Amino acid sequence: MPDAPHVVIIGAGFGGLYAARSLAKKRVRITIIDRKNHHVFQPLLYQVATAKLSPADIASPIRSVFGRYKNVQVILDEASRFDLANKKVVLKTGEDLSYDYLIVATGATHAYFGHEEWAGLAPGLKSLEDAVEIRRRVLLAFETAEREALIDGKRSMLNFIIVGGGPTGVELAGSIAEIAQKVMAKDFRGIDPTRARVVLLEAGQRILPAYPEDLSRSAERQLRNLGVDVLVGRAVTGLQPGKVLVGEEVMASNVTLWAAGVKASALGNILGAPTDRAGRVKVAQDLSLPDHPEVLVIGDLADIKDQAGKPVPGVAPAAIQQGKAAARNVWRSIQGKPREDFYYLDKGNLATIGRAAGIAEFGRLHLSGVIAWIFWLTVHIFFLIGFRNRVLVFIQWAWAYFTFESGARLITGRTDLPEAGK
Amino acid sequence: MPDAPHVVIIGAGFGGLYAARSLAKKRVRITIIDRKNHHVFQPLLYQVATAKLSPADIASPIRSVFGRYKNVQVILDEASRFDLANKKVVLKTGEDLSYDYLIVATGATHAYFGHEEWAGLAPGLKSLEDAVEIRRRVLLAFETAEREALIDGKRSMLNFIIVGGGPTGVELAGSIAEIAQKVMAKDFRGIDPTRARVVLLEAGQRILPAYPEDLSRSAERQLRNLGVDVLVGRAVTGLQPGKVLVGEEVMASNVTLWAAGVKASALGNILGAPTDRAGRVKVAQDLSLPDHPEVLVIGDLADIKDQAGKPVPGVAPAAIQQGKAAARNVWRSIQGKPREDFYYLDKGNLATIGRAAGIAEFGRLHLSGVIAWIFWLTVHIFFLIGFRNRVLVFIQWAWAYFTFESGARLITGRTDLPEAGK
Fold first, then answer.
1. Which of A164, A281, B95, B374 is the least crowded, having the fewest Cβ atoms under 10 Å away?
2. What is the per-residue pLDDT across B43-53, written as a single tens digit (0 to 9) for each?
3. Looking at B259, B293, B319, which one is the last position of a domain?
4. What ipTM, to 2 d.p.?
């Protein structure tokens, strides 16, 4: 179809992937640009970070997702500039790519509130590389404490501090507490992993502020049952190697993780359109840029309100809905039809808190504990991309549930052995 | 058992792992030192390097293998020096560890025949980190060629050159040819992955020189059927970025992999005992160091002959047999019994050459093709450490066999995008 309209999609997260899927069966040419070769199922990233799943279990090569659609091509590259007047994307490798329609879906990244130097001290969790790095730090902390206990007879503390009480922070804290309590317990001789301290720091007055208050309280209770110290009203004022500063208080920390904030991908700024404080691009209700109906911005990069006037949250279902809506609006324009406004439909929210625990909100129906957890399992297996991934994840979850083992306890990369005399 | 003899084992490859397993049920205290937290099932490393399995599928945390043996402790560290006179190992972190018996099993690493600067140009395959790096380079080569074809209209060559025709070289070449031919074919638009050229360079007169000649020929035929160019009698004389030099000939190469030689771990030299050309420690027939019966050296680090006077090969079964024999001899010494000589029992050799192809040698029984491949599958599933790993590997093999898909096609780490103007 050399004369079919050319739709360029930047980013193959949930938004870009579902936009491409919706358009792939239409008479259009699609080019997907991503700087990675894989789509990541982000809601399960924390399970890679906590050694429950392998990176490949939650990732799919983008080009294999679209293998059978001959009108879809995938290019490993990045957008470095936009020439909206001439409808061109300039790629990092220097070439131009012309489009008829452009969908920008490059998502969000960690925000350290102006302290970008904290990134090395407290990694956030957005990519598979982040997840493997967090896994390395968490497992290495146990190994280091064991070595010191066995060789020097030292009783070191083992503190994990997670900054930020949103869903990612809650899931990381619950999952780390769980492996310390259940998985690691029988494998160490010098230390008692069950005495590791997991702290969840939240600046606001309650964790999971986007959830109704009763579910916040329930999540906090479930975390405490796992041994997590939930500290609210504590804003981090500084990070140093091995330390977290909260006002006057200095907390010793072996591993600090950052789940406190996100900002939109830097690509938003170079689109030349107005952005909000978090760098998100203000879009019209049809998801398009002002004055550029052929450019649509979706997912975590878009600043858009729902029907009640509330900002659409940065969650996977919202990105998926926007991806589908953007594809529909592009196709309507191609057919010469008027576009439709996009309104986010909140179908509910789910979070897990370790084994057989979690919370779920479906409108006025609020669930906690095992039932929420079963909902969570079912939904996440169902939405995983690729049948193979579903089978592998299901088997590993079942295995972990019945054996209290955790499959991917690998330290790869540097082991940071302190050399004698250094 | 604080008064039980203390056995220190350095290295948890096949030799060290099986030595520890054999001793774990005896009345001894065991300390395993390894610089990684995991044992790797090395015979399947090439499947991680070629995107068929995930790292965690072929690795087991060392301490979880010994979780139920309370007399076994595991320390993440390295040996940096030996004080044989005082029976002490000095660890990299600076502390001493006293032993009654010491088993050194630190294996082998790549040898570039004095050209260590080649390591960056042609990675070898010994660790999970190596495997992920090779996977990154192989997959990235396809992505780069696709980008150049789609954007610049360039028809780049896609050459993979594997140096060394031993089992690792053969398995890598077969496996890369297979993913190019079967897995990648339908997912690219600008390039035709089936036209990628896979070259196996062997300096000697035939590949797999350790195998009988008829099986060498059969392996060569099976590789050619997969489209691999097998070039024998070609010694590599130089490596440059993007180039392999063979005498006067310059071969363009997108990805060069090194499977041409190994040398023993550097630890052999600091034991103070005589070593052979490859750095292997000459041991007595009971696997002990001369003058130090309490120190045993096993696996790829040991220079020992079999009953026919031939050197014991550097393969997993030999290391396993030596690990068990070392454990038996240590236990016999503890009981005041005389030691037994170790003689390698060659139970046969197997190699795969892609899908439903392979060779097998069991004494005078030589097998080729599907039957050898089925033998290989069965043996490797059986010997994998951990039931969980067996289930996951089996499922992924079955999946790949029936769907021609390959599960772990992940590029993680750097994507090396050439920036405009650079």
1. B374
2. 999 999 999 99
3. B259
4. 0.91
